[in-house]
Amino acid sequence: MAEIVLQQTPTPRAAVQRMRAYHPPLGGRQGLRLDFNENTVACSPRVLEALKKIAAADLAKYPERAQVEAKVAQHLRLEPEQVLLTNGVDEAIHVLCQTYLDREDEFLFPTPTYTMYEVYGSCTDATVKTVPSSGDFTFPIEELLAAITPQTRLIAIASPNSPTGTVASREQILQILNGAPQAAVLVDEAYYHFCGQTVMDLVGQAPNLIVARTFSKAYGLAGLRLGMLAAPTGIQQWLRTVISPYSVNSLALACLPEALDDEEYLQWYVEEVKAARTEMVDSLRRLGVPQWPSQANFILVKIGPKHGEFVRAMQQRGVLTRDRSKDQGCAGCVRMTVGTRAQLKQAMAAMAEALNEIGWEKA
């Protein structure tokens, strides 16, 4: 009988060895979830009803996405061929990187921004090229335009941006689309519902525009992993070639139409968050905590050197927050999701106690 004698594991390709690892929490997220910008309440009750109707035989079949993509397209006033559902926006970013980035290509985006751009970009043989934002985190349009080269093949713009909550204006996005005709330009509108600004209507008009949306935030479907890419059919044919045909599961496909149809629930949650965001801004001012204006469902605050102590003190009080101090230009910063007004009262009470406990003083 043959024996195993080799004592080493295969070495991954060089790009994977250089890849920036992302380490999400794998458990223990108990309490008020203000750390990952999820819906802090729940999904629509109609989604749960849809889950109850799924039969055992339905799970024996491979998922069929066409009918649901047509539903999403109708919802967004697009053609079915312009919509591609993905396993969260993370898969969407991965697919774009695999579709457009090759050796000697450049992937361009401003920082700080969503971590997964760098994660998936660094897993290719392309060069990840970043443009730092200014101290107030306004969108660095001039610097970004100046950084575009003939090698730029993919540009990512998160608007509103995470972790800052700032937006890129429609005019700025148009400047980038026109300034980089050789590049695919992703506008990531994950937090669209909390600001209302979009370039979705330009899909199909601008041949290099791709718009991403997620159903993890306002819709409360983070556990089902659902995102989408809207793009001209000339782009979609290549994205469909790259993406796994079954990456969006049957449960997610069964639930999404109900989530889309329950506009009343979505509107309630979005308006609740906007009202709580206004109140949170005022509460932070009263506490003297520096913050940046946000058009998303979170606010970035400046705690300073005691940021780690603050996050731990908040967790001890049952409130989870996200330390962003390692992001470009975010030293000492913590991001806090905005939930409902009732949840805000709990969060702000905990924050006042936590700041006092760690001996925090205004800068």
Describe this structure in words.
This protein has 363 residues and is α/β, with parallel strands linked by helices. It has two domains: 110 residues, Alpha-Beta Complex (Aspartate Aminotransferase, domain 1); 216 residues, Aspartate Aminotransferase, domain 2 (3-Layer(aba) Sandwich). The strands form three sheets. A seven-stranded mixed sheet has the order 2-8-7-6-5-3-4, sandwiched between helices. The longest helix has 25 residues.
Query: What is the global morphology?
Result: globular
Helix/strand class: alpha/beta
- Rg, please? 21 Å
- Strand arrangement, major sheet: 2-8-7-6-5-3-4
The count of β-strands is 12
Beta-strand percent range:
5-15%
Q: Which topology of the largest domain does CATH recognise? A: Aspartate Aminotransferase, domain 2
Keywords:
363 residues, alpha/beta, Aspartate Aminotransferase, domain 1, Aspartate Aminotransferase, domain 2, 2 domains
List the SSEs and their pairings.
Elements: H1 14-18, E1 32-33, H2 45-52, H3 66-76, E2 83-86, H4 88-100, E3 106-111, H5 115-121, E4 127-132, H6 141-147, E5 152-158, H7 170-179, E6 184-188, E7 209-214, E8 227-230, H8 233-242, H9 250-261, H10 263-287, E9 298-302, H11 307-316, E10 319-320, E11 322-323, E12 333-337, H12 341-357
Parallel strand pairs: 1-10, 3-4, 3-5, 5-6, 6-7
Antiparallel strand pairs: 2-8, 7-8, 9-12, 11-12
Helix pairs in contact: 2-9, 3-9, 4-5, 10-12
